[in-house]
Amino acid sequence: MSAPWGDIAAPGTDPAVLERLVATIARRGGTSPLVKHAVELAITEGSLDPDDLLDRIAPPTTLTERQSIIPVVRLWRQLGVRAAAVGDPAYPWRLARGWPESGAPPLLAWRGPAAGIPDVPAVAIVGARRATGYGTAIAAWIAESAGRAGVLVVSGGAVGIDAAAHRAALGTSGATAVVLGCGHDVRYPRPHATVGGLFDQALEAGGALVSEYLPGVEPKPHNVVARNRVVAGMVDAVVVVEGSDRSGSLRTAAAAAALDVPVLAVPGDVRAPGSAAPHRLLAEGAAPCTGPSDVLDALGRSEVDHDRPAQTPSPLPEPVHAELARRWPRAVAVDELAAITGTPAGQLLAALTRARVAGFIAESAEGVRLSRAPR
Q1: Which of 119, 191, 325, 335 has the most C-beta neighbours closer than 10 Å?
Q2: CB of 120 within 8 A of CB of 299?
Q3: Distance of CA 242 to CAs 97, 145, 272, 281, Å?
Q4: What is the DSSP secondary-structure string of 193-252?
């Protein structure tokens, strides 16, 4: 066995098993064939523990196979990746439940805490890439409140709802975990995977980047879809904020339902395309999510304010701040805001610029809104 595998193996993971799994995944073109084989063995031979199944689906490798995967371990070591096999102490226990029938990957690789994903209550917040300002505000509101309550916020790292949830969890007492639909060395989505981007920020805040894929695996549609089952399997509840009738968030919700993980959906404008997914889920029996308290109730947690930064005085004129607070989380067009508050256009634009630079407001195609839920 090549010595570097000991550097990659998480605490409690046998480096030899890890090496065999990686070699078998590389040879068979992914984790799905291994899971299928494990399910077949469980059906035909009865109850087998994870160690026995792993031995059967990832048998000893040849010298040629071991040499062929040396670039994998070298790249993972360079990136600071740790890995664990299903059933190991560092492998997320929620994801391991019901394996192999659950379809969870036999191997998980992550950047972040060496000991693995924090063992705390966890929620997935998912939704549309082409999210509205309303949707991103709701996602951030829920994620920030969950993080303050010590809840791990999990999502898929995409633009839109996913990104809003990840960002809001940064700086809270909780953490965030990004489930990738590609290998750790693939920069996708590019705005988040660049140096100093969202993924680096998540790692700096104590979060994790998680993937079942080997280096070089691209975010092809079937890979991105497959990661939804990992998102659902890592959490205690799933919240769908926005999404079309073909949204990937519906697949995440379906995976959660198959695992008996509660699904919540945020009601929206009945005429908005982004309301299709949550409204469909509500019609199918998902619990309504009208705010953070609904999520925290599902997790058995309470809202806390102890680690929320003290609110600084608003840099906005009082009538402007009051109107944005009244309309939150919906955005208000600047010209409408000027008309309602009677604030001269020049004065309003100057105040909004100062507030935007200070991070007090957020801008979108729909207008401006407060960055945080008003108290």
Answers
A1: 325
A2: no
A3: 28, 19, 10, 11
A4: HSTTSHHHHHHHTT-EEEESSPTT----HHHHHHHHHHHHHT-SEEEE----TT-HHHHH
In this prediction, residue 310 has a pLDDT band, given cuts at 50, 70 and 90, of: low
CB 186 within 8 A of CB 216: yes
- Single out the residue of 80, 77, 83, 93 nearest to residue 22, CA to CA: 83
- Return the sign of the alpha-carbon dihedral for residues 126, 326, 339, 314: negative
Q: How confident is the model at residue 1 (pLDDT cuts 50, 70, 90)?
A: very low
Say how far apart CA 263 and CA 247 lie, in whole Å.
Answer: 15
* Contact in structure between 132 and 223 (CB atoms under 8 Å): no
Mean predicted confidence (pLDDT) in 123-141 = 94
DSSP 103-138: ---SEEEEES-TT-S--S-EEEEE--SS--HHHHHH
* Whole-angstrom distance, CA of residue 7 vs CA of residue 101: 30
Angle at 122 between CA 118 and CA 126, to 5 degrees: 125
Say how many residues make up the chain.
375
In a 3-state reduction of DSSP, which class is residue 167? helix
What amino acid is encoded at 178 in this protein?
V
Name the 3-class secondary structure at 60.
coil
Across the range 40-59, mean pLDDT stands at 87
Three-class SS of residue 343?
coil
Contact indicator for 361, 349 with CB cutoff of 8 Å: no
Tokens 């999502």 belong to which residue?
Answer: 155
What is the reported pLDDT for 3? 62
pLDDT at 305 over 70: no
